[in-house]
UniProtKB/TrEMBL annotation:
Gene3D superfamilies: Regulator of chromosome condensation 1/beta-lactamase-inhibitor protein II. RCC repeats lie at residues 6-58, 59-110, 111-162. This is HERC5 ligase. Keywords: Ligase, Repeat. GO terms for molecular function: ligase activity. The gene is Herc5. Residues 3-192 form the RCC1-like domain. InterPro entries: RCC1-like_dom, RCC1/BLIP-II, Reg_chr_condens, Signaling_Regulatory_Domain. The keyword Ligase applies. Pfam families: WD40_RLD.
């Protein structure tokens, strides 16, 4: 769970270190702060059978927990007890994540999908049953501009808005995929029914919430489980970040009742390293160049902000 202040808390089973709080332990019943990620502005989190993965607002991906099949994307099969940076996804422009029992799928801003981890049931979509230890692009989906991805235990679903189709691959033994298909489907194939007949969605600036476009039931294919898949790993509510309109309000508004609200907002954002870092990211995708050497923060934006609030001493002092 990520709080508005940007801190990540975890609890529950920890036999593979999937909570990211250190060495494997007995189940933890109380929320524990994942200290290593403190200060990183998180955008999404996904959890698998015994592994976890997060992505920051700058597209930096961290994974931890069970890694028997390479589901952490780190190039080996060693478990990780604390979040580890997935360098193979640097500059990938990751915007969304999904986890199966032992595999992971990642969606880029451009609509590309890469998968890694267990591939024994074809759930990686690479026309094989090999495991993949590092992220690999699903070639069959190249150019499809996928807008959403979801994982079941041993299968994967993606939505292509331009074609208004859900594509599926992986194990269908438990009815996840269409009944007439072979149990192991090794490449993405469309479910032969449009998600929203006569209407297609375009653009990929945000992941579409398929709850709005998927019918509850379809006579030609079973979409009940698909609806559940696409809504279970939704966007976080979002950590608190600074917006231009907020600053304008701070400067222009002087009524006492609004000042208390403004102070609360300022304290929330400026008491959190994660919220500060997320507030001054470089524009026009430049923040996706973030690495260990490049912060992704636009210092000119920081200076401009301070120049702006200096016009109102009480705001400047509160910040």
């Amino acid at each position: 769970s990520v709080c508005e202040g940007g801190d990540l808390f975890a609890w529950g089973q920890n036999d593979h270190g999937q909570l990211g709080v250190g060495s494997p332990t007995v189940p933890i019943s109380q929320p524990q702060l994942v200290k290593i990620l403190k200060g990183i502005p998180l955008a999404h989190i996904a959890t698998g059978g015994a592994h976890s993965i997060v992505v920051s607002l700058s597209g930096a991906v961290y994974s931890w927990g069970k890694n028997e099949f390479g589901q952490l994307g780190l190039g080996d099969t060693e478990d990780r007890y604390c979040p580890s940076y997935v360098s193979a996804l640097e500059h990938w422009k990751t915007v969304f994540l999904a986890c199966g029992a032992d595999h992971t799928a990642v969606l880029s801003k451009e609509g590309l999908v890469c998968t890694f981890g267990a591939g024994g049931a074809g759930q990686l979509g690479h026309n094989s049953t090999r495991n993949e230890l590092v992220p690999r692009v699903v070639a069959e989906l190249w150019g499809a501009r996928v807008s959403q991805v979801a994982c079941g235990s041993q299968h994967t679903l993606v939505y292509v808005p331009f074609l208004d189709k859900v594509y599926s691959f992986g194990c269908g033994e438990e009815g996840q995929l269409r009944a007439e298909r072979k149990p192991h489907q090794l490449i993405p194939l469309p479910i032969n029914s449009p998600v929203n007949p006569g209407k297609s969605c375009h653009g990929n600036d945000q992941v579409h919430n398929l709850y709005m476009v998927l019918p509850g039931r379809c006579l030609t294919c079973n979409l009940d489980n698909i609806l559940m898949h696409f809504t279970q790993n939704s966007y976080l509510n979002g950590i608190a970040t600074l917006k231009d309109e907020d600053v304008d309000e701070w400067i222009s508004n002087s009524s006492p009742q609004h000042w208390e609200h403004i102070k609360k907002n300022i304290r929330l954002i400026f008491s959190s390293e994660a919220c500060i870092n997320g507030s001054f990211l470089a524009k026009r995708d430049k923040h996706f160049k973030t690495s260990k050497e490049v912060s992704g923060v636009d210092m000119s934006e920081v200076l401009q902000f301070y120049r702006k609030i200096s016009k109102k001493p009480e705001v400047f002092q509160e910040v």
